[in-house]
Amino acid sequence: MVKDVLIAAMRMLGMTENAAALEEENAECESELINMYNLVVSEIAEEYRRNDYETAPTVSSALEAEAEFYGVSGRVLAYGVAAEYCITHGLDEAVTWDGRYKAALSAAKRRRIKVPQRRMM
Q1: How many whole angstroms separate alpha carbon 7 and alpha carbon 25?
Q2: 44 near 69, Cβ under 8 Å?
Q3: Do the Cβ atoms of 28 and 61 come closer than 8 Å?
Q4: How far is residue 114's CA from residue 121's CA, in Å, rounded to a whole number?
Q5: What is the residue extent of each domain of the chain?
Q6: How confident is the model over 43-76, as pLDDT tens digits?
Q7: What is the pTM of this model?
């Protein structure tokens, strides 16, 4: 669920009270974090599944299922949300989280593309 990604991102950022509240209450989280999640998913969709989606999948609730990308875990999504949060709020940790996010994305497995073999006629 998106909620799990957001809880992980909050914990990464030291927002443990907010994470615990979201985890225990099945409550909705701030729309700001959902918007950041949607930005991360949009970026990954553009890079990884360009041909699979006309538009990136978006969510409006933390209780929805998270987007699935081959080789991209919820932890990678959480790194992205943490990075977006830090960048948006001008926090010094932005460089750290953005670096972790980009490193994790570049290490993510991608599907192999099989090009059919051509025959000479």
Answers
A1: 12
A2: yes
A3: yes
A4: 21
A5: 2-107
A6: 888 877 666 666 778 888 888 888 888 888 999 9
A7: 0.83
